[in-house]
Specification:
Number of domains of chain A: 1
Largest sheet of chain B: none
CATH topology of chain A: MetI-like fold
Radius of gyration of chain B: 22 Å
Distance between the termini of chain A: 9 Å
Shape of chain B: elongated
Strand content of chain B: under 5%
Oligomer: heterodimer
Shape of chain A: globular
Order of helices and strands of chain B: HHHHHHHHHHH
Strand content of chain A: under 5%
Number of helices of chain A: 13
Radius of gyration of chain A: 24 Å
Largest interface: A-B, 50 and 40 residues
CATH superfamily of chain A: MetI-like
Distance between the termini of chain B: 14 Å
Largest sheet of chain A: none
Chain lengths: ~325, ~290
Amino acid sequence: MSHWYLINRLLLALPTLLGAVTITFVLLRVVPGDPIAMMTGPGATEADIAQLRAHYGLDQSIVDQFIIYLGQLFTGDFGTSISLRQDVGELIAGRLPVTVELVVIAMCIAVGFALILALKGVYWRDRWPERLIDSFIGVIVAIPDFLWALSLILILGVAIPVMPIFGRMDLTISFDSWTNFYLIESLLRGRFEVTRSVLYHMVLPAVSLALPLMAITARVLKSCLNAEMNREYITLARTRGFGRLRIIYREALRNALVPATALSGVQFTFLIGGTVLVERIFGYPGIGNMAIDAVINRDLPLIQGLVLTFAVLFILVNLFIDICITLIDPRLRYA
Amino acid sequence: MPDGRPDLPLTYRILHEPRAVFGLIVLALMLLAAVFAPWLSPHDPLEQDLLSSFLPPSWQANGDPFFLLGTDNLGRDIVSRLIYGARTALIVALVAAALAALLGTVLGMLAGFYGGKTDMLISRAVDIWMSFPAVLLSIVLVAVIGAGLHAVIIAIVIIDWTRFCRVIRAETMVQKERDYVASAVTIGLPRVRILFQEIFPNLIPLLIVLLTLEMGIAIVVETILSFVGLSVASDTPTWGNLIQEGRQYIHQVPWLLGLPVACVVLTVLGLNALGDGIKEVIDPETRQ
């Protein structure tokens, strides 16, 4: 794959990014709701409010505000959070690693189990295990991550209390992190009790996020695999005497992965959106949880920064999926 | 049609599809609860009785037969609150899904039928729309419109029209190539009439499936927004509010959370099953 392809893809993402920035900006400015009034409370005088308004640049016209905002974005300045009175860029940088770790683990769980389900389903085609797997997928796919999170809390947090249901790790452990990537950092620094606690706290939120993605990916992959199994090269492999297992793994899987990855790619971005609620429910200190607080406080700069961050994550995930497809299928590399 | 007894009427075939029947039963139960809420619920859902707070379900040790599924922290009857919650959920589901369908279908039909610049404009808008996290967008929207049921409905419509738009656009493009459209063009029907009188009726089965699925999504979104505290006022019984309240007492009285979660899960499963069932009946090609 040439690097031009990558650069081209990144350039194509720019209009989408600009669109996301513009829509958020317009939405938040046009509609009623005064962040300054919420910030100051009832005791503030007109002069106080006017001064704050000027301080945050809210006294200028919307077009001017937008141009100033875009200019600041290009210099890496995301503004100052109104409710937390800190630099938005720093705030997000501190929380982003938490969400990234959670999302990556959730995606690994989803892909791993989707592969197992799909391969087992195809292996036992037209027998009762396949029907069992199909109905299992059907039930899981119907229920969104938000409800899985609550159900898992009820089952594994309360009814059989085996799993922690709040926070990122045990509060009794102290860990001074430099990067906030607790998982990797604790492994590298040999603080395995931290790794253990972080992983343990991650299980329920990650599984809640992973379940819907797992089910959809498994369904798509399974139907792609089934379609491949009807092709002639499979018949050929069978006449050559290869076993069913080997045919599925070595022959059909690679061909089925391309359409399956392309079809279920969008679902990976849905998983990122899901962090907003799942983090909220489990009190997980990532950017999703922060987004809800930002919205409740009408913290415009923070909301904008977070929406932009989510849009960038979406674009990166899409790019990553495209790269995966070209890696799986060599024919696409020179297309 | 290759199989599936196409000679039988559609309603008959739907009633013989187990998943659709399950979905219809759930929907009927919800309708019943929503319409007859004032007569069905044994108590006023807002009536507080602090002397009998946190009562367990009536069959348990300290249960009171007067409160079938127990009471919450303020001594309000859970059964009544769940029934009234169904009412809110159904209103949101019906209104929001219908409006989202209207907007998405019209835009999708225009994009699919006219193509060219219209299609590019609408498809680009859909792409940009879908690059937002839906949950985040809905929370932002409700925060700016202001809390309340109408805000929840507006938010769902603004976000979910894309679901209809994409599918309807693709189906319109398929229908456009069919012979009946060609003959309508030949006899000189105006293009708008072809689109709305000839093509639209053929989109209705697909639309019904999408509507059913969207109702489930709308109910989840309403629950989510209530949960975050951005839907209706917190004293109004909605499933989301019940979940939010139950979340606080999860270790003492887990059924306060469990019962509304079960209601939402059952409804969503039912509506999904209904959508899948109808899809299978009207579109034999999806069968393997």
